[in-house]
Amino acid sequence: MFFKRKKIEKEVRLGKLFLESTNNRSYLIYLSSKLSKTNHNAEGSHFGISDQLMQLALKQFFIQRFLFTTLNISVLRALGRNDKLIRCTLPPNLRKRLHEEEGFKSSEIINKFSWLRILFYWYIRGIYSIVEHFFFLIKGEMPDSKSNYIFFSALSSKNFPNNFKNSKTIINWVLNKEKFKNLNQIYHDAKIGKTIFLDSYSINECSLPFYVNPSAKNILNYVISSIKICFISFFKMLLGNYSYALLLSEYPKLYLSKNTGEVNFARNYYFHNSTSILRPLWTYQAENKGSSIILYFYSAHIYTFKSPKGKYYNELYNYRYLSWPKYYVWHDYHKKYLVSLLGEDQKNKFEIVGPVWFESSNSFDLPKIARGEKIISIFDINVYNSVHFLSLGHPNDYFTSETLLKFHNDIIEVIGKCKNTIGILKNKRAKSKFDSKSYNLKLETLYKKNRSVLKTDASLDAHSLIENSVASINIPFTSTAHVANYLGIPSVYYDPVQQIQPDDRGLSGIPLIQDKEDLALWLNSVIK
User: 429-488 pLDDT, tens per residue?
Assistant: First the structure.
């Protein structure tokens, strides 16, 4: 395993060097964007939906599951070998495009086996989902039959800290924003094992996002239809039609939303931007029945940098294929950028709501730690190991350990000269297996040896830290700068290596400082 990992690292680095030697570092996002435009033949009749919707869902599925980090690693490794022999997990039509249009040689036996393996994985995963939903029906794990409720999708235990009432989570944010009338219940699908009571609301976990009548007839029809679609998916897969097998996990909720009589849908469904490309098929039915389907962005950091030549690269995530009916965005810059991707005809779907709370720990007492000193909040971004960083497809090497360490060293030096002031760093997210261990060690050492600064728990919500600060310093283009701006706290982006263009749209109205002396002048003016 160790030697295999080292081989992958070597080939990925050689692939990067090849792209640099040909002045083509943006190739990975170019290729992902190009392949994402591929149309896939798919029929939706056996799912009870149109062919057009099935094709859109399949395209979104490929973008979300295949055309990002895993493809980028395969491409870099192929470019790192002189023969451009690519080993990847893609359907035949996409492999054909790589061969005919991009000049890659295909390791056909390996690639076919890899594709069949992943195809059977999603087919088995679909069967598991069907069985799982059968037990949801039997156990009645669904909202009340007549309750007026809202539902939050894809949350985790991090969204439910202790002292929930005073936390800044997405549920608290929505309740503060919406001011619901006649709302009986709040549901979510996180596995936390408890009910939370907040004011007049009870917040419950629930496996199904809507109520269906769990009668014997409905359950029997579900079982019969599920067995039928499993056989159809399998035989279609053998004939080369892989759409049903890949999207089989979508079938249970889609079937139940359409075929169980009167369904009690939520008033609002809330989905977040981490898994935003593939819109669940059942939500189209819920939308038709009057539910509001909302995609909220808990981050505004969605931009790629402007190149030194004044060109904007393709965006990393293929957001142009989003198909949600309503979006919550932070500010007008955020809205304009997404509208530029989705089209002017989509602009009425956007609502500007300011910064959106998401997770909170409620485990840190800022006043005690600050010891009465003025707080300068510091926000950076995680530095990944070289392989994972390159797999993201960034067209430049801005977020490196060299850049981030200079960012921190400069800030520490500036804060160290200010009286009665302390800098508090909150990392963007908790450490993960993808992080650069050497960078994290250097960062920990740096903050431990300097009394003018300290590191806080990464799980602390940024909002709580910022509202206790007199100023905020951020690495471009982190969303925390906009949180501070929204709260009326002076905030800047600090670029220690002078790579950001002063007119880059990613700044979105936040001042840019690119010199340590200028940072000191700004900070002193704020403190005074």
Answer: 777 888 999 999 999 999 999 989 999 888 778 888 999 999 999 999 999 999 999 999
Buried/exposed code over 226-261 (b: 16+ C-beta within 10 A; e: otherwise)? beebbebbeebbeeebbbbbbbbbbbbbbbbbbebe
Tell me the C-alpha distance between 418 and 527, whole Å.
9
Residue boundaries of the structural domains of the chain = 146-206+265-361, 366-527
Instruction: For residue 105, list its beta bridge partners.
Output: 85
Using alpha carbons, select from 114, 186, 99 the residue that is nearest to residue 143.
186
Average pLDDT of the residues in 182-200: 93
Domain 366-527, CATH number (from 3.40.50.1980, 3.40.50.740, 3.40.50.2300, 3.40.50.2000): 3.40.50.2000
Residue in 485, 480, 494, 475 with CA at minimum distance from that of residue 380: 475
CB 44 within 8 A of CB 51: yes
Q: What is the pLDDT of residue 371?
A: 64
Virtual torsion, Cα 158, 159, 162, 168, nearest 10 deg: 120
The single residue listed with the structure tokens 């990393």 is 316
Strand partners, 423: 376, 453
